[in-house]
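The passage that follows is intended for readers who have already worked through the single-chain material. We present the inputs for a multi-component assembly, then the predicted structure in tokenized form, and finally a short commentary. You are encouraged to pause after the input and sketch how you expect the pieces to fit together before reading on.
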Amino acid sequence: MKEYELFIGPQHPGVTGNMMYHLWVDGDTVTKAECNVGYLHRGFEKLMESRNWMQNVPLVCRICVPEPDVNEMAYAMAVEQLMDWEIPERAKYIRVVILELARIAAYLMSIGSYAGSLGIYTLPQWALGDRDYFLDIFEQLTGARVYHIYIWPGGVRWDMPEKLPGLIEKTLSYTEKRLKLYDDVLFKNRIFFDRAVGIGKIPKGKAIEWGVTGPNLRACGYGYDIRKLEPYAVYDDMDFEVIKYPELGDFDVLSDGCDAYTRMIVRRLEIEQSISIVRQALEKMPEGEHIIKHPNWLKWKVPPGYAFKRVESSKGEYGYFVVSDGSNKPVRIHVRGPSYTHGVNVAETILKGANMADVSQILFSLDVCPPDIER
Amino acid sequence: MRYEEWNKISRIASRKSLWMLHFCTGCGAVELPPVMTSRYDMERFGMGPMATPRQADVLLITGYLTVKTLKRVVNVYEQMQSPKYVISFGSCPINGGMYWDSYNTVKRLDRYLPVDVYVGGCMPRPEGVMNAFLELMKLIDEGKARGWEKYQKYYEQYKRNQKMAFGFERGKNEGD
Amino acid sequence: MKAIEIIGKGEEMHGRAYIPSGREEAGTIIKKLKENGFAHFVMLSCVDWIDKNEFELVYHMWSYEHKEHAMISVRLPRDNPSMFSMHELFPQIETYEREIHEMYGIDFEGNSRLTPFLLEGWHDTPPMRKDFDSKKFAEDVFDSIPEIKEEEDEGI
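Having made your guess, compare it with the prediction:
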């Protein structure tokens, strides 16, 4: 049959945001895929070079829209390392709480949109509605729904309100109840088994070489999690097991890993893991200060040097490379987004040979988020 | 006279079934899923997401626009059938917002496309978004949402501005 | 530090190995590290040191075995910079090289896909270079675009 070209995106509900894939299709089999990004390029890295260290805080969180806190965390840690600051113990616990809550919210969004790509339209309604309760917590804690600007170099912006742990606990137990319903609708649903098993396979031996990280890597059977490998904040104090491919709890192992099915099950299980971490952090949280005293922001100079800090986000590994020459502005801040590898090289390779109807679910199961590719 | 009356009836009908184009142009798109789904549920106003520009009535510019996206947005806007409306989200399309010195975002949307309703804030809250939809319905009812007529009337000015932003003019001056 | 032992040079920097390297030997160093457990290529950064008239390319690598991070730094002159492509070692380097080619104007020999990545129809200086002034560009290009002149009457 004659090969033809197909453009999906940027205006298409089946791609994960404002990006485009250029596909060459034979019948309904994809023979070649090319990623085209840049629709969201705002030149963050250039803007950061002309702003001072504190003005950059509201900029960094805009690099990942569904889960902004990881960016603030990585930036704050890099600046703290250059300044040689030790932050208060209470701030570390509050950071863990907000990071894990943001992680749950991002997973709910990702699961919802994945189910939408399979045509199961109940779950987007439920998951996105439930995500909103987490946004309510953020609103009480930080004052904003989406961009929190809460984790600052040196601590967190405000202390946690006294009554917030009660609300968090209420939301968490509600989410746990809802997850059982999600299982019936998606994760133990025949449609999901038939559509997702064996689709979008990343070759297991190549996963690390291709730069796959996060839940996508854990679905390939490698139990690597930055929260365990390089514990930041107080993750070394938390009790949790890394979820990886053959150990899928009470979900069936239907394939030999690395496919869309396993990736989504890993995400589903990590919601429960995050719920348990939030509970532990709230329980162990000590009293005390929440931020250290900042120098005058306009005259704040950071000692020269290189800093590299990484955090685990719901999509994979976030890395911040910060270079200072001792002035009040950074020389260079380079962000490593997890979608940079997932969305471009990995997607281009695994889309080859996929069925046209599966393209959308493969992209959603990789959880590609274009803003961190182009920044 | 009959034309006027027919126009009024058509406005009442069209404001009750506005279909918005599903095009996430910027970060404001993250507040649209809550508006579309169970908690805020815009379907009670008769609004729904629509995948193709040819059947959509409302174009949402959700946040900053880069030059590369503006090309696609203009393309999409011109495919939509009249009457069509534009809602702009957030501070970035109003005056550039926090990207005022960025080399790749267009600063003022109203120089490239006619905007009917602005929603301020970064991010606008879902309530703000809902309010903008109601405002748009009110404007349609009163016959004031006439951006698309403006686009037809001043088409040449809009086209000139779009070309200037896309860099065709700049390229020529440098001899590329 | 394992990376410093393998290569035989470099210094420790906040728990991460920093290995300065020449342009020619960088390929060998990265290959050697890859064979010795540094299997995860994190990212390729570029820093513009305009005072020293140099670009610094930083190859970040991570070893899941040794739990260690290595930064290999290559300095290039700012005039006609060029570097060898390493996309055969790790496929995602191709994308980083595309971006750096576009943003800094560094040429990568052996990379056949140095097509525009993020920008479209860009005619100016590569934007991430320090001598490109983003604010001036924004003022020149976007502020010069005139407003739509409307006629008073009809009230459209």
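Commentary: Chain A is about 45% helix and 10% strand. Chain A has a mean pLDDT of 88. How closely did your sketch match?
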